[in-house]
Amino acid sequence: MKTIRYICMSDLHFGAGSSLFTSMKPPTQDEKTGRLTARRGSRILRQFARSLRLLAKKHSRPGKRPTLVLNGDILELALADLDDALTVFEDFLVALFPKGETPLFDTEILYLPGNHDHHMWELSREEEYIRRRKKNAPPFHTVSADRADGLRSPLLEETLRRVRSDLKVRVSYPNLALSADERTVVIHHGHFTERIYYQISQMRNLIFPGRTAPQTLEEIESENFAWIDFFWSTLGRSGPAGKDLELIYNKLHDPTQTEKMLHRFAIQVSAKNHPPSLWDTIRGTFVYIVIRAATRRILDTEIHQGKEPLNESSRKLMQWYLSVPVKHQIGDVKRLGFLFGHTHKPFSENVSLEDGASVDVYNSGGWVVETPDVIESHGGNLLLLDEKLACYPLHVFNEGEFTPDAMLPEGDRLKAMIVNGIRRRRMRLIRRIQSEGTMYEKVLLMTKGNEWKKHLGSGLASGPKKKKRKKTQKPRKSRSNS
User: Fold this and answer.
1) How far apart are CA 74 and CA 16, in angstroms?
2) Distance CA 51, CA 409 (A)
3) Cβ(433)–Cβ(253) under 8 Å?
4) What's residue 354's pLDDT?
5) CA distance 58 to 282
6) Cα–Cα distance, 363 to 343 (Å, whole number)
7) DSSP-assigned beta bridge partners for residue 381
8) Which residues in the chain come in under a pLDDT of 70?
9) By CB neighbour count within 10 A (0-12 exposed, 13-18 middle, 19+ buried), where does 458 fall?
10) pLDDT tens across 357-375, in order?
């Protein structure tokens, strides 16, 4: 590849403890305010940015600097504090645009929110709606896929200006379409290739079976945006509870710890009386079954699947997404490419749609360590587009294959850091999973001062066993013969 026009990346998860780009050093406490300082970027982040700069310097022409496309889950807002996420993002920008040097990248960054940073879209959308409402324009939930229709983001712009005054950002959601000659490339984070992000639509279909399911992106987002924004994009800002949620999410990746946590929760629910009544036991068992089913549904997402790049359900939904909502948005195109992330499993293949059209599909993977076991299909790619929008997937790493593409500058140095970073984060993750947890989990352990039965199947209704007191025998008086 001689000239790089766009560099697309996704799932950096800035601020998350599991991200390779977030430093493992614990936050320090400010002596004056008592407030914990924000997490910072890691050594891997700085080397990654250096490799990107060298790549852009080698494969760009004067006046044609590569444009950065940040394709979703760049900021971790579900499992991390907003300040942590923005601070690591700022560290990344500082490393990409060093002070006093000529920029090697286009100063306008293209940003597509995903499910974990969906709230960035809501902030941009509401800001734009305030302006449009002055002209009596109706509410909206999506914008066109045209780059020019991307919205401003005051929060991101403020972060950019702290680094360089000339940096700008355009926020597009859920798709961005780039065109050159007869080729069109659609970029989407990828969450709409999984059914769980259509949850509200599915519930409405069950309640009102005769209704027409949403077909356009505006309809899909308007029905499901609140579900995505609350559950997947804002919980990390819930103070100490947000930190506890990160721990709980980590534990959900270990079956034994998941069972223990669910049992404790069911015990707490059924602990109204002492000993618990039959109704308490039934209620606790019901709660356990419901929560366990919901937990399995969450963990049954594409990220947690096996070695296959896409399971059959996600593949079919991706084909439908490209055939119906995307086609409705951009119309018919002769040659279509589709770039997405979300699954944390980089791959590239050609996919056929129902109408016989052929689509070149590329996935950029992810940069987090969130399971105690090695998943060989997990890894990170950079998706490079040239001036004709031909895509070159630049391999950086897989957990099963750490040899980076020869095109990546200082790839061996980055590889060594990534290998060490994955090992250290996995060890920390295992320790956290095996720990008893933070205050939230400790509360679940307490039931009237006692920890009851560990398993519902061992007879929850019997309550805690009372310790038998040992009877002490009084010394017998010796009888004397008179």
Assistant:
1) 10
2) 5
3) yes
4) 83
5) 67
6) 8
7) 395
8) 1, 235-307, 433, 435-482
9) exposed
10) 899 999 999 999 988 888 8
**Could you tell me the two tokens for 30?**
């400010």
Tokens of 410: 């200082």
Alpha helices in 42-103 (DSSP H): 43-58, 82-96
Query: What is the sign of the dihedral through the CA atoms of 417, 347, 409 and 22?
Result: negative
Tell me what pLDDT residue 168 has: 96
CA 428, 434, 439: angle at the middle one, nearest 5? Answer: 95
What are the φ/ψ torsions at residue 280 (nearest 5 degrees)?
-60, -45
The answer to whether 393 and 406 are in contact (CB under 8 A) is no
Per-residue confidence (pLDDT) for residue 441, from 0 to 100: 42
Q: Could you give the CA distance from residue 250 to residue 267 in angstroms, rounded to a whole number? A: 21
Question: Closest Cα to residue 400, out of 482, 473, 274, 306?
Answer: 306
Give the Cα separation of 389 and 186 in Å (integer): 11
CA-to-CA distance for 426 and 203, rounded, in angstroms?
A: 37
CB-CB contact of 383 with 362 (8 Å): yes
pLDDT of residue 59: 94
Contacts of 135 (CB under 8 A, 6+ apart): none
Q: Cα–Cα distance between 458 and 479 in angstroms, integer?
A: 51
Torsion angle of C-alpha atoms 357, 360, 361, 364, degrees rounded to 10: -160
| The pair of three-digit structure tokens given for residue 76, joined into one six-digit string | 């971790």
Residue type, 273: N
DSSP secondary structure code for residue 451 in this structure: -
Question: Hey, which residues does 380 pair with through a beta bridge?
Answer: 365, 397
What whole-number distance in Å separates Cα of residue 86 and Cα of residue 83? Answer: 5
What is the enclosing helix (H) or strand (E) of 463? none
Q: How many C-beta atoms lie closer than 10 Å to residue 194's C-beta? A: 21
Determine contact, residues 264/441, Cβ cutoff 8 Å. Answer: yes
pLDDT for 459: 36
Structural contact between residues 112 and 70, judged by C-beta atoms closer than 8 angstroms = yes
Structure tokens at 397: 């790493």
d(CA 76, CA 120): 11
Residue with tokens 């909206």, as numbered in its chain: 140
Ranges of H-type helices in 408-481: 411-434, 439-445
Residues, the chain: 482
Contact 400, 410 (CB under 8 A): no
Residues linked to residue 29 through DSSP beta bridges, in sequence order: 36
Residue 197, C-beta contacts closer than 8 angstroms, at least 6 positions apart: 115, 191, 224, 227, 228, 232
Q: Are 87 and 15 in contact (CB under 8 A)?
A: yes
Omega before residue 275 within 30° of 0, cis: yes
Query: At 229, is the secondary structure helix, strand, or coil?
Result: helix
Q: What is d(CA 82, CA 280) in angstroms, rounded to the nearest whole number?
A: 40
Give CA–CA dist 153/101, Å, rounded.
25
Q: Residue 218 phi/psi, 5° resolution?
A: -65, -40
